Amino acid sequence: MHVSISDAGCGPQVLSIPAGPATFSVTNTGTASVLEYEIEQSGRIIGEVENVIPGIDRSFTLNLEPGAYIRYCPGGTLAATGTLNVTE
Q1: How far apart are CA 41 and CA 34, in angstroms?
Q2: I need a labelling partner for 76 at 20 to 30 A (CA). Which of 4, 32, 34, 87 fits?
Q3: CATH number of the domain that 77 lies in?
């Protein structure tokens, strides 16, 4: 799935996907202040990609169980966090 980081933070704000393997392809839409994309559960980072500079796409893959997760894009001004709902 394609997601993005911007000056605002994580995009889209809310994301729902089915359980199982998920590859997050992260695009930097032109920000120099937000360069990371993280997936967290229970306050712990379970997957991330760093140094996503403008013009470069990076990706990572997780095997996700059903539940609620937090997406975190450090430095975002409006949407530094977003939700990830994983369904059965």
Answers
A1: 21
A2: 87
A3: 2.60.40.420
If one counts the domains in the chain, the total is 1
Q: Which of 32, 79, 75, 76 is nearest to 52 (CA)?
A: 32
Dist. CA 39–CA 32, nearest whole Å: 20
Considering the entire predicted model, what is its pTM?
Answer: 0.94
Query: What digits encode the pLDDT tens for the residues 37-50?
Result: 999 999 999 999 99
CA distance 49 to 13: 18
Q: Which residues constitute the domain of residue 12?
A: 2-87
Angstrom distance (rounded) from CA 49 to CA 37: 6
